[in-house]
Amino acid sequence: MMLPLVLYDILSKLPDNYFSPNTARPRFALSYKDLPFVTVWVEYSDIPIAMKAIGATPNKRPDGSDIFTVPVLSDPNTGALITDSLEIASYLEMTYPEKPIFPHNSEPLIRAFESAHLNLIIPGAKFVLVPCAEILSPASAKFFMKARSANLPLPWDEFSPESLKILEKGYNSVYEWYQKSGGKWIMGDTFSYADIIVACWLLWYKRVLKEDEWARISSWNGGKWAQVLADVEKECKLA
Asked: φ and ψ at 14, to 5 degrees?
């Protein structure tokens, strides 16, 4: 009998806790593949200690120094312990190939897609970091701001027409990608991890921002982004 996999995710003040686009991606992938899993919720400020304790591999900062992050996935069926959402997706595809998330050998292209998508979205999404700190415990909020400001210097943008304009420009480009696919998904009629990447950023906004703020973002491009999130959640049985 298959043992449930263990996903390490971030504890928050939100109902059901989850909010991070990084940790949402393996949650969506596991659910899509019908793999049993349980979640261990970790205080943001405790991530370095907790991940060291289980023997997780650290990621690297731009300066080459180590940084412990989540998501981390533990698979008691194989003994594997994987850090980073994209590497988790790659592991799941290799180990549990049923219901592929990298169909037609698309992993190299979807890795490039993730980088391109990130470069479009990050410049306009910095304002979402401010409410992120507010949904964490005081100790975790302080740790979060210190950790994130290493790559994204303070002060962070507030929600404003200017910040929205930058983010909307990025989503206009992503919308064009979907239009050119000729189907419902980035790969046309074929669902893939690329759609999970897009949806998990949208989920972040919906979970963290105020309702009217999310309503503005989700209405862009004729309501495309509310629809993408709903479609991916349904496909992954998380609706």
From this structure: -75, 150
Q: Measuring CA to CA, how many Å separate 70 from each of 23, 39, 161, 189, 216?
A: 7, 12, 32, 31, 29
Region 135-164: what's the mean pLDDT?
80
Q: Quick one: tokens of 73?
A: 């996935």
The pair of structure tokens assigned to 214 is: 């999310």
Average pLDDT over residues 225-231: 98
Burial of 46 (0-12, 13-18, 19+ CB in 10 A): middle
Strands 72-75 and 80-83: antiparallel
Strands 37-42 and 5-10: what pairing?
parallel
The residue ranking higher by pLDDT, 46 or 60, is 46
Contact yes or no for 97/107 (Cβ under 8 A): no
To which residue do tokens 């949904």 refer? 135
| Dist CA 36 CA 32 (whole Å) | 11
Cα–Cα distance measured from residue 204 to residue 185, given in angstroms and rounded to the nearest whole number: 20
Average pLDDT over residues 52-67: 89
pTM comes to 0.95
Tell me what pLDDT residue 157 has: 67
Please report the pLDDT score of residue 148 as a whole number.
Answer: 75
